[in-house]
Amino acid sequence: MRDGGSDAVALSVEGLTRRFGGLVAVDNVSFELPTKRLNAIIGPNGAGKTTLFNLISGEIRADAGRVRVHGQDISGLKPHQIVRRGVSRTLQIKSVFSGLTVAENVRTAVMAHEGLASPFRPAASYRAVSVRVDDLVAQVGLTPHLNTRASALSYGDIALLEIALALANEPKLLLLDEPVCGMGPQETEQAVAKIREIAESVDVVLIEHDMEVVFAVADEIIVMAQGAILARGTPAEISSSPEVQEAYLGAPEEAD
Amino acid sequence: MTAAGISRAAVVVLLAALIAVPLVLPMFGSSFWIDIVAEILIWSLLAASVNLLLGYVGLLSFGQALYFGVGMYGAALSVIHWGVGFWGGLAVGVVAAMVMAAIAGSVAVRLTWHYFAIITVVFSLILYFAAMSAKPLTGGDDGISFSAQSVLTLGGTKFTLADQSVQYYTILLVVAFCYALFALVVRSPLGVRFMAVRENDRRAALVGINVYLTRYTAFVLAGALAGASGALFAFFGRYASASYMFYHVSGEAVVWAIVGGAGSLLGPLFGTGLLIIFREIISAVWEHYLFAVGAITVLVVMFAPRGLAGAWSDLLDVMTRGKPPANVPPSSPSAAPGLPKRAADTTSGG
Amino acid sequence: MSALVLALAVNGLVWGLIIALIALGLSIIFGLLDIINVAHGDFFMLGTVVVLVLTVSTGSYWLALALVPLIGFAVGLVLERLIIRPTIRQASLTIVTTFGLSMMLQEGVRATYGAQPRRMAAPIEGTIPLFGIDYDVYRIFAAAFAALCLVAFFVFLTRTKLGTWIRAVRHDPETATALGVPVTRICAITFGLGTAMALLGGAIAAPITTVEFRTGVDILPFCFMAVIIGGLGNLQGTVAAAVLLAVFEGLVTSVTDPTIARIVSLGLMSVVLLVRPHGLFSGATR
pTM for this one? Predict the structure, then answer.
């Protein structure tokens, strides 16, 4: 069931609601994000940002509402089905296959995307997969660490590896949950550059606490508070909105 | 030589040694040990079934004896009632165990962590009690017995399991075939999925893997391994008994797998071998050898959670690099097989 | 006929209260240390053996009954330090460590005490008429004493500082640490307490059961059923489930094979695990 020309809409959320006991974590949220934009969602802790991502990626079931990606309804699907429909995400606490090497990590994701599950042929014998693995690793700049175990990588490199995993399904929409959280200044700079580069070919939505990063990369910002959307606009509009100032930006040094 | 090369050479040596067993042991007047080696091979498949779940998908099953028992009865009953012979009985045993695993697994793999361990024990206990009380069919504790089966008739010569060497080579053939299949599967794209689920089930789902289906597949395959083990043991002992379905048998298999090293293909074979040889030697002089087995179990978990396979891979590192591994990260795949630390919820997927 | 049914139900109640005590020990260990203690049944067995040995050597069951929980507490503390604490970080493998411990306990008792099953004379003799049949006075005492121990435990948990600390660590170990609760020591004490409760259960049950190295194997599944059906970590639920299950099995046994009763209980346990992993008595939400 699709309604109308959604080609220009990357992500459409309609009346999305999720309660935990008495708490409404996401409260009847609706918005549409245009394609070819780098969108950011900000908001204080407990605003419902990560729950919103969990609802979109299917890890939590919504109590009500629909989610469409490029016009395709993904509501109620399971996480692995949603991934196969071109929606990828990273997690706030970086999540990779830590006992496997970088190449094995990416190979796992590529094979999952290709739907490969043969029990008999050696996994290493799939030429096309190997080529794609090398490409993806190169794309995030981890080629020197190809055969390093993920658990031995630096924090910033783990974040990059996670992005490579998220890109393996050639996503139409990439959700990044606090991509620079926990990074040093230099790592942050590299990651921001990488995100910009990726956003040229993939629609990206990111949740971020680091306002400097948000205002540097985002074309448009959605501000959430208490499970609802408080404001929406360009970085300039958001930073000058008194409402947002009051609810969230409060501390001037954060607003920069 | 590379580490992989040494490992390959070691496998060849192992296979050659196993083939030589019935030729060499009688020279030392210890034909008795041929049967012990055969028994080790058979039980190692049960340990391998624990290993497939624990070492490759990260699920600790304490109920694999159930599928062992189903394989055992599948073989014994089909031989007794239908006269299907060795190969038929083996097939029936394996298929029956897979069917049982397919039924039990469909609900068991919805759980993870301790809950999975508990439900696998519970299922095996239910079937254990059922088998114990269904005496007319199963013979309960006493079991049911049958005669040694024929394996092959070649130009009028009948090869039967009554011949010790025929029995040994038949068992070796089946066990080697099972390990070859196991090796193939864990190196395949399916094996890649297994390890993804073991390492991080949330991320596995987020790269598009159906975690439930992956665990389920592994569970059914593990059931097949345990079933093959049980069927072979039925032919080896020429009987089947419900007592083999008790959870202590499952527990022993877990111990063998861990002592050998979960997450390595052949580790559990060595774990099984070590503990069975230990039993044979010590039990002759000390009635309470199980006390030592318990102590070994505790000590291995405390000091060498990667088991014999871990020691072997450290040795390989020394041989190929000339120094002990300086910074092997704690969560290497052959390290302590890790279930996810307490998952947020107990049900996953489905 | 109905007298027999009632007697079996009362028997179930007696056993249910004793098992509730043992299962409660299992439950607090699980709730606090996150480990599945497969050796718990063998702690019960150890209690039956120790009380028998002490009764013979001291000549008084009552003195032995008083000493057993203290011995159990000490045994628990030592085992926690030697075996549990070093392996607790591999949560999944604690099942394996305690399985090894279980083998050591069973074989250790068999090696020292012997393999011969023995019976112990009831310390209180005589019977009283109950629903038309003569019922052992000791069984009534056992039930009442077990119930008293259960009440005492809940009072300890809610009214003492140590009890409050135990509840705090159960609830949220990180916050408890931040508040200055000595978490490591609390874990050790909890394991000691859980062990003591299993041994005490054994000491109470010794005069009404056989004393041998294998009895733990039968008790363990029952304790797990009580803990699971009552809800992992739900202490009141554990007690309720233990009593209900024992009475249920007692009643079913009066009409059919006890094995059927056991199968039905285990089936119920699987359903609870799958449908309500937080137990039959938990609220709708967690």
Answer: 0.88
